[in-house]
C-alpha cells in the first residue's frame, strides 16, 4: 500500500480501532490507559483534550431504559466547551434553549453551575450548565413519559378494533367460549402493544435527534462566545 495515501479522521479511527483489536487478539490481553494518556495520544494527531474528555463521558452515561414501548422515554446528551462562560453568556444559552423548546422554565443554582427546568404537557426538560475540567459542561435531558402514556392510551382504541377482528376470527375457528374469549383478548392486547410500540419508536427517535441537535447548537454558540472572548482579550492586550 503506498505511503502517500491520505486518510480521513473517520478512516483513521477505524484503522486504529482495528489495529488495537488485532493486537489484543494477538497477545491475549487488553491494554488499559488513563484519560490523561489517551489525551496525550490524541494530541499527537491534533485532537484537543476537551473532545477526548467529551467522548470518554459518553461511555459513563447509563444506557436509557427501554420498557414495553420498545424505545426509551428519557433522552440525554452532553458536551463540553473550553473555558468558563460568564453569567451573561450563560443567560444567552438559556434564552436559546427556551427558544428551541418553546418553554420558559425556571433557573436554579446547583453547586457551581446553573440548572434550567421546564415542563410541558409532553414532559420535562432539564438543562445543566456548569464547570468541568477547565471547561463548561452543557447537558440536556428530555423526559417524555407523559407523551408516552398519552400514546399508549390512544393505542387502546386500536386494540379495541383488533378485538373486533378477533371476534370474527373466533366465530370462524371455534365454538368454545373460553377459547374464543382468549382469541379476542389476545387480539386486543396485540393490537394495543404493536401500535403503541410502532408509534412511540418514531416519536422517540425524533426526540433523540432533537435533544442531540439542541445540545449541538448550544455547544456551537458557546464555542463562538468563548472564541469571541479570547479574541477580545487578545486585542485589548
Written overview of the protein:
With 237 residues, the protein is an alpha+beta fold. The protein is 61% helix and 17% strand. The protein contains six helices and five strands. The chain has a five-stranded antiparallel β-sheet with strand order 1-5-4-3-2. The longest helix is centred in the last third of the chain and has 60 residues, at 177-236. It starts with 8 loop residues before the first helix and ends with a helix.
Helix and strand sequence:
HHHEHEEEEHH
Tell me the fraction of residues in β-strands, as a range.
15-25%
Helix content: 55-70%
How far apart are the termini?
50 Å
Which spans of ≥5 residues are poorly predicted at pLDDT below 50?
Answer: none
What overall geometry do the principal axes of the alpha carbons give? Answer: flat
**Helix run count:** 6
> What is the makeup of the main sheet?
5 strands, antiparallel
In order across it, which strands form the biggest sheet?
1-5-4-3-2
Average pLDDT level: 79
Structural class by helix and strand composition: alpha+beta
Number-wise, the strands total 5
- Rounded to the nearest angstrom, the radius of gyration is 26 Å
Helix and strand topology:
Elements: H1 9-27, H2 35-43, H3 49-60, E1 74-82, H4 87-101, E2 106-110, E3 113-120, E4 123-132, E5 135-143, H5 145-173, H6 177-236
Antiparallel strand pairs: 1-5, 2-3, 3-4, 4-5
Amino acid at each position: 500500500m503506498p505511503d502517500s495515501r491520505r486518510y480521513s479522521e473517520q478512516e483513521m479511527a477505524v484503522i486504529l480501532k482495528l489495529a488495537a483489536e488485532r493486537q489484543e487478539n494477538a497477545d491475549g490481553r487488553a491494554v488499559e490507559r488513563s484519560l490523561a494518556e489517551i489525551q496525550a495520544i490524541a494530541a499527537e494527531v491534533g485532537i484537543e483534550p476537551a473532545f477526548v474528555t467529551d467522548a470518554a463521558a459518553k461511555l459513563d452515561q447509563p444506557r436509557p431504559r427501554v420498557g414495553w414501548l420498545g424505545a426509551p422515554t428519557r433522552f440525554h446528551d452532553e458536551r463540553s466547551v473550553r473555558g468558563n462562560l460568564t453569567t451573561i453568556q450563560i443567560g444567552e444559552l438559556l434564552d436559546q434553549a427556551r427558544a428551541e423548546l418553546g418553554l420558559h422554565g425556571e433557573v436554579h443554582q446547583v453547586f457551581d453551575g446553573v440548572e434550567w427546568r421546564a415542563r410541558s404537557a409532553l414532559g420535562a426538560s432539564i438543562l445543566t450548565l456548569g464547570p468541568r475540567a477547565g471547561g463548561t459542561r452543557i447537558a440536556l435531558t428530555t423526559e417524555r413519559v407523559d407523551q408516552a402514556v398519552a400514546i399508549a392510551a390512544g393505542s387502546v382504541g386500536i386494540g379495541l378494533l383488533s378485538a373486533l377482528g378477533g371476534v370474527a376470527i373466533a366465530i370462524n375457528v371455534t365454538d368454545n367460549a373460553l377459547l374464543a374469549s382468549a382469541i379476542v383478548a389476545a387480539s386486543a392486547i396485540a393490537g394495543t402493544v404493536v401500535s403503541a410500540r410502532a408509534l412511540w419508536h418514531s416519536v422517540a427517535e425524533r426526540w433523540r435527534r432533537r435533544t442531540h441537535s439542541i445540545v449541538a447548537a448550544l455547544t456551537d454558540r458557546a464555542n463562538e462566545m468563548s472564541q469571541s472572548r479570547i479574541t477580545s482579550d487578545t486585542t485589548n492586550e
